[in-house]
Design brief:
Structural class: alpha/beta
Number of strands: 11
Number of helices: 11
Largest sheet: 9 strands, mixed
Helix content: 40-55%
CATH superfamily of the largest domain: Periplasmic binding protein-like II
CATH class of the largest domain: Alpha Beta
Distance between the termini: 37 Å
CATH architecture of the largest domain: 3-Layer(aba) Sandwich
Strand content: 15-25%
């Protein structure tokens, strides 16, 4: 059981407000301040600082938060393990983004289940932002994501790399001339994923690197499901940017076609991500290695050599 003052510290870290932390914990603000001062005296460092009336963590505070937050999550997992009887199978909980979960990891997962018949598995689906939140909250031990994340905060390794393309229906009629550059597409309706989706974030960053943005597309439709987005594309509702693997079958059947652009060519890597401060980090790494051992993990058009 962690010291009660650690719970106070973590609450202050989450709220970044001593008054709000006191209200959540049912304490007085002086009591919260006293708890933080006790920890600062114990560790011999300052954990918070005020800059222009804004509370923030010091470098030492961030280090303590990462470690104590991981310990808090690990304690909850440990409690469940202690209560598990020998007859109960081990339980794993992982998360995958929608694109990866539907198109790029099913075969490795199926092979893993076949080779580990006594393990119960919960697979969470969500966008990159949601999965990182589940990982931070200790609800999953491993995430396979497509979007960007703060690499220094997590343990990580590449899964596979895929082409990111622009596509439309085979019979789509452009509003103007045949496009050759990104700017030629501004008159088309853009079908895109929701904020927090890795697919959308990659598009946003790619456009930004070229001095462009989503606002350059005045007509758009936000779709929170890749299957629905692809179906809308096939119905000539607009164009979209997505991973080739997500539209592989439609491209091969000829119901969708790639839009070749002279100023757009990119690929992006799907990554395994886990809490590097957790005592269960080795288990997460072992699971990622097992999934990487499946041949399909290397089938991406631009797959990296595995380290």
């Amino acid at each position: 059981m962690l010291d009660f003052r650690i719970a106070t510290f973590l609450t202050v870290c989450r709220t970044m407000n001593f008054t709000k932390a006191a209200e959540e914990l049912g304490l007085t603000q002086p009591a919260v301040t006293q708890h933080i001062h006790h920890l600062e005296q114990h560790y011999g460092v300052s954990l918070f600082r005020y800059e222009k009336k804004t509370l923030s963590l010091t470098e030492q505070g961030r280090l303590l938060y990462a470690s104590m937050n991981a310990m808090t999550k690990d304690e909850e997992i440990l409690k469940k393990e202690l209560l598990r009887t020998p007859e109960e199978p081990p339980f794993l909980s992982i998360g995958v983004t929608l694109t990866i979960g539907e198109y790029a990891v099913l075969s490795p997962l199926a092979a893993y289940i076949e080779h580990h018949p006594n393990i119960n598995l919960h697979v969470h689906y969500g966008n990159t932002r949601n999965l990182l939140a589940l990982l931070d909250d200790g609800q999953i031990s491993l995430a396979l994501i497509e979007g960007f994340y703060p690499e220094k905060r997590y343990g990580h390794r590449p899964y596979r790399t895929e082409q990111f393309i622009c596509a439309c229906a085979a019979d789509y009629v452009f509003s103007g001339r045949q496009p050759n550059r990104l700017r030629d597409l501004f008159g088309e309706r853009l079908l895109l994923r929701e904020a927090g989706s890795g697919t959308r974030e990659i598009l946003e960053r790619s456009l930004q690197a070229r001095g462009l943005s989503l606002s350059d597309f005045p007509r758009f439709v936000v779709v929170e499901n890749m299957h629905a987005l692809i179906r809308m594309m096939k119905q000539t509702c607009g164009i979209s940017f997505l991973y080739r693997v997500a539209a592989k079958e439609e491209l091969e059947r000829g119901t969708l076609r790639e839009i070749p652009l002279s100023d757009f060519s990119m690929q992006h890597t799907f990554d395994f991500v886990w809490d590097q401060n957790s005592i269960y980090a080795d288990q997460a790494m072992a699971l990622s290695e097992a999934l990487l051992s499946h041949p399909s993990a290397r089938s991406g058009a631009f797959s990296r050599a595995l380290g």
